[in-house]
Amino acid sequence: MGRYQRSGFWRSLNQAKRGIWYTCKTQGHMQFHIAAGISVLCLAWWIEVSRSEWMMLIFAIGSVISAEVMNSALEIVVDLVQPNFDPLAGMAKDVAAGAVLVTAIQAIAIGAIVFCPRFFRMVNHFF
Ligand SMILES: Nc1ncnc2c1ncn2[C@@H]1O[C@H](COP(=O)(O)OP(=O)(O)OP(=O)(O)O)[C@@H](O)[C@H]1O
């Protein structure tokens, strides 16, 4: 339980939503990830991917967005602890950004596995 407020499911949910909303408002990368995620889900719905493919895509999108939220949290903490230039503070942010990059590469790989075979089949069909 936190030191400043009583615990409670709805209160915790609201705090988590506030954190996600803050990340959406302040982080351009988060806005890009959400737009890309929605586009991928629309494409998946349009081409009618299988249940297991839906799971892979949702997992990939969720991983990237979670990593971006964690990255934002770490940036806030670093700015709080060290507002001045410090190579270690910079490295902490770079390491967190690296985690986002890893999940983004994973998402691109999953997207390629799901969409590329269909894309090539479609190209073969038309030409
Ligand atoms: N206090 C600091 N000391 C040294 N370098 C820093 C510091 N703060 C930021 N940096 C460097 O600047 C980069 C960008 O930091 P910034 O806080 O602007 O994050 P950002 O642009 O929002 O990052 P991201 O694109 O990952 O969301 C960091 O990755 C780090 O290399």
From TrEMBL:
Tell me the gene name: dgkA
Names of the cofactor(s): Mg(2+)
Active site (record annotation) = E68 (proton acceptor)
Gene Ontology molecular function:
ATP binding; di-trans, poly-cis-undecaprenol kinase activity; metal ion binding
Q: Taxonomically, which superkingdom?
A: Bacteria
Q: Name one Pfam family in it.
A: DAGK_prokar
Entry keyword set: ATP-binding, Cell membrane, Kinase, Lipid biosynthesis, Lipid metabolism, Magnesium, Membrane, Metal-binding, Nucleotide-binding, Phospholipid biosynthesis, Phospholipid metabolism, Transferase, Transmembrane, Transmembrane helix
Where is the protein localized?
Cell membrane
Return the protein name. Undecaprenol kinase
PROSITE patterns per UniProt: DAGK_PROKAR
User: What does the record's cofactor remark say about binding?
Assistant: Mn(2+), Zn(2+), Cd(2+) and Co(2+) support activity to lesser extents.
Known PANTHER family for this protein?
Answer: DIACYLGLYCEROL KINASE
Species of the source? Desulfosporosinus acididurans
